[in-house]
Amino acid sequence: MMPQKKKSSQHPSKTPQTATLSRSSLHERRVGLEEEHQWLLKQIKRKRTELKNFLEQMRTVASEMFHKGEPFHRQMLELDEEIHTLFDEILKTRKMGKQTQRDVVGVYQTLQLMGIISPKDDEEEEDEDSELDDLFEDEDEEFWQNQSQQYRANYNEVETESASRSHNQNKFVVLS
Description:
- By secondary structure, the protein is mainly α.
- It is 78% helix and 0% strand.
- The chain has helices at 25-93, 98-113, 123-175.
- Mean pLDDT is 76; it is low at 172-176.
């Protein structure tokens, strides 16, 4: 008789794995991510609170600046109106020559264009502007004609000098 083989009750490939109580790496990673997520939520909440406080401080500072600057702003508006009134008075009541009046109007317009005084946008000013345009129209044409003539004269002079230089340079080239 042949000895009978004992059948093993456990086959190595079919051995059940023992249940361990330790955490798996995926579980540990998930827990770590949850902790990081909670930390980030706390940081977001803290930053939102800081932003809210900062905005409240900015509103308070802006309000204080407005209240402290308001008297100066009112004074500036009063001075601006006074300057406009003085120029109106000078231009309407004083008798002056055409050139002097043009100079005064020029100073007045320059102050407005530079932002030193506020621009005046009355309908009267538009009428005055058209009158001033009519006054200066003839002189502007003469001015630009003179400028054009001077430019042409200077350009022709430069061209003549340039041509004579290039002619003289050609002489040197031939002689060399």
